[in-house]
Design brief:
Elements lengths: L24 H7 L2 H17 L5 H32 L10
Helix pairs in contact: 1-2, 2-3
Length: about 100
C-alpha cells in the first residue's frame, strides 16, 4: 500500500528516488525488464546518432527509432503513475471546511 502524505519537519530532507540501473543492451536483454531494455537501446542509439561517423541513411532510421523508443518509455512511465494513483484509496469527505 502506498505511503500516506504527512507534514515534514523543518530538519527533514526528502528521500531520493532510487535510480534505475544502467545496463548495456546485452545485459538488459538477458536480465533486465522491458523498460531497462528500451532505456539501454535509447542510450545506445543516441550515442550512435551523436557520432560523426553515422552515415545519413543510418541517421534517419536511427532517429526514427529513437523517437519511437522515447514515446514507448513515456507511455510506460505514464502507466506507472496511473497505477500508483489508482492504488491510493479515497478518504471519506465530511463536507466541513
Amino acid at each position: 500500500m502506498p505511503r500516506r502524505l504527512r507534514p515534514v519537519g523543518p530538519d527533514e530532507k526528502p528521500e531520493k528516488p532510487e535510480k534505475p540501473k544502467k545496463l548495456t543492451v546485452v545485459q538488459a536483454a538477458a536480465e533486465g525488464t522491458h523498460r531497462e531494455l528500451l532505456a539501454a537501446l535509447r542510450a545506445r542509439i543516441a550515442a550512435t546518432v551523436q557520432s560523426p561517423s553515422c552515415n545519413p541513411v543510418a541517421l534517419a532510421a536511427l532517429s526514427r527509432q529513437l523517437v519511437l523508443i522515447s514515446k514507448e518509455l513515456s507511455v510506460i512511465a505514464a502507466r506507472d503513475v496511473d497505477e500508483v494513483a489508482e492504488a491510493i484509496p479515497d478518504e471519506a469527505w465530511d463536507g466541513a471546511i
